[in-house]
Design a protein that fits this description.
mainly beta; 3 helices
């Protein structure tokens, strides 16, 4: 018994010696509290500077059934990611990364592209500047082309083949705005049209990939919104040599458009025209003038369902006397599963007057953005 009491007494003495005093406990608590507060402040600081990262994107898959030809196709046409970062209250970064046709690489149909990567700086409340890789300010679809924002499975061929959308360049630009007017001016890399080909602007896009920069382009645009639901705009671009030294051919693009949305009705209209130096006709007859237009009325049957019709005409050899235009009529429907998710169906008839050929195509599509 005495031996047991001795052991207990020894243990109690050891615990008493090992146990911290009240002052020690309070000191440990204060140190722990300080560590927690420092951690919380660090998290709050990081959240304040890092939470302004934005991520978005869009994608679309198409099915094209060409009547009378063995050319039916299904294609995941575009997969796009946007990444932006608010660097401070007046400076931001924006980028757009795209994979076209699902597979890219040697022998594959697709491409991997950076369509945007620029820094934008607010100069004041109404003026900002940007530098880097950006979309050329022209047309209706070139800057806003998420599939839920337009009718039709495929983008219209006027903006595709004349402007040519989607079109991006590297350079610097200014954007200004008032309550009813906005404007853009930019100096940027230009086209490099191959003089051995058909001399169409679309094939002259360099996509800022080790692009020839012997001659830059100048672009100016103005948009006017006189009232809610009404917007009109116009762009002019000039490049002293669209062949980058190969043939010394200057080019000028003029484009004008209007968008009217009143209640359930909407109308889009656009005209675009390239005018090149006459010497280009010696290389490709009629290519000194290339133009196109379209008119697209639409009606929202309900909040989720819309129908449209589009008539368009474009001609990459409008400078010659022969009729070489491609005239298209498209009718179709959009059904929005959500505000930014859409199912599409349309029927397109294209009359190629130069080839004396008419092609009918039935198209289905699904698209999304976030």
């Amino acid at each position: 018994m005495k031996k047991t009491l001795g052991v207990v007494s020894l243990l109690a003495s050891s615990i008493a010696l090992a146990a911290p005093s009240n002052d020690d406990l309070q000191k440990q608590i204060d140190e722990l509290r300080a560590q927690l507060e420092a951690t919380a402040n660090a998290v709050e600081t990081n959240a304040g500077s890092g939470s302004h990262v934005s991520i978005g994107g869009y994608g679309e898959m198409h099915y094209n059934n060409v009547q009378g030809k063995d050319e039916d196709e299904i294609d995941f046409h575009r997969f796009v990611l946007f990444i932006g970062k608010e660097l401070n209250s007046t400076t931001r970064f924006f980028s757009e990364f795209e994979v076209e046709h699902a597979l890219a690489g040697e022998g594959k149909p697709g491409e991997v592209e950076i369509e945007q990567a620029f820094i934008e700086k607010d100069i004041n409340d109404t003026l900002s500047a940007k530098a880097g890789l950006f979309l050329v300010p022209v047309g209706i679809l070139n800057e806003t082309h998420e599939p839920d924002t337009f009718y039709g499975v495929e983008r219209n061929n006027v903006e595709k083949n004349i402007i040519p959308a989607t079109w991006w360049e590297g350079g610097v630009g200014l954007t200004g705005k008032t309550e009813t007017i906005s404007y853009d001016v930019a100096v940027h890399s230009g086209l490099n049209i191959d003089t051995s080909g058909s001399l169409v602007p679309r094939k002259g896009r360099q996509k800022v990939a080790e692009a020839a920069a012997n001659d830059f382009a100048f672009t100016a645009r103005v948009n006017y919104k006189p009232m809610a639901g009404v917007a009109v705009g116009a762009t002019i671009q000039y490049q002293e040599d669209v062949t980058q030294g190969a043939a010394n051919v200057d080019g000028q693009l003029l484009e004008a458009h209007a968008i009217v949305e009143q209640g359930d009705f909407a109308v889009r209209a656009l005209y675009a025209q390239w005018t090149f130096d006459d010497k280009i006709a010696d290389i490709a007859d009629g290519a000194e003038k290339q133009s196109g237009y379209y008119l697209e009325p639409a009606y929202k049957v309900s909040q989720d369902l819309g129908v449209f019709a589009r008539y368009s005409s474009y001609d990459n050899k409008a400078g010659n006397s022969a009729d070489s235009a491609v005239n298209e009529t498209t009718v179709g429907v959009n059904y929005w599963l959500a505000d930014t998710v859409v199912l599409k169906a349309d029927y397109n008839q294209a009359d190629d007057t130069a080839a004396d050929e008419t092609t009918d195509t039935f198209n289905l599509g699904v698209g999304y953005s976030f």
